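Quick one: structure tokens for this chain, please?
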Amino acid sequence: MSKEIAVLMAAGLGSRMAPLTKKVPKPLVKAHNRSMIDTVISGLEKRGVDHIYIVVGYLGEQFGFLAEKYPNITIIENKEYNEKNNISSIHAVAEVMGTADCFICEADLFVSDPSIFEAKLDRSCYYGKMVKGYSDDWVFDLDEKGFITRVGRCGTDTYNMVGVSYFKQKDAKIIADAVLEAYKHKGHEQLYWDEIVDQQLGKLKLVINPVTADQIVEIDSVKELAEFDPDYEKYN
């Protein structure tokens, strides 16, 4: 296997998880006695990813123990997390993104099935879960050959984003370079990094790596956390 790295996006405020995130960043919130970020790291470690970069912002100092625990983890500070959208987290790691095949993962996921990271990934891809009916979440449109033609919000009977993606080295560099270019223009402050990917689809050949909803649990609010882990029912 060629060299692989991973970028974990851990800079956000996690405001929908308040009051739990008043003192603890969302990726370090525990469910069933495990922090969410730990479930992601464990899966990447099992795959044998060479190096993991954790991009931190809000309460970023609390992630320092991970670099002490894992010799292959580097903490990178996103100093713009409070003024710009998550394009700023990719900008913070742009110089390393084109150096190897690269996972990009949200750090506030609960990965129930770490085997999702053991998939044979021959192409750049987004992990996606099929959702029947209408969804107002981030979704993918596909052509008849299965290539992604749109990354954006809202769709019907299609794959939804689950917070994990994988880019071959060449494609990771295309995205990093496009982020650096976007930074030269006014308005980049409000962009999600996935919008940059959408703009570059003419240069990228992205597919879906299917997963099921129970393999990656997305927990966006205290209510959802309480439904997943009864220990939090008092916050619901």
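The longest helix spans residues 169-182.
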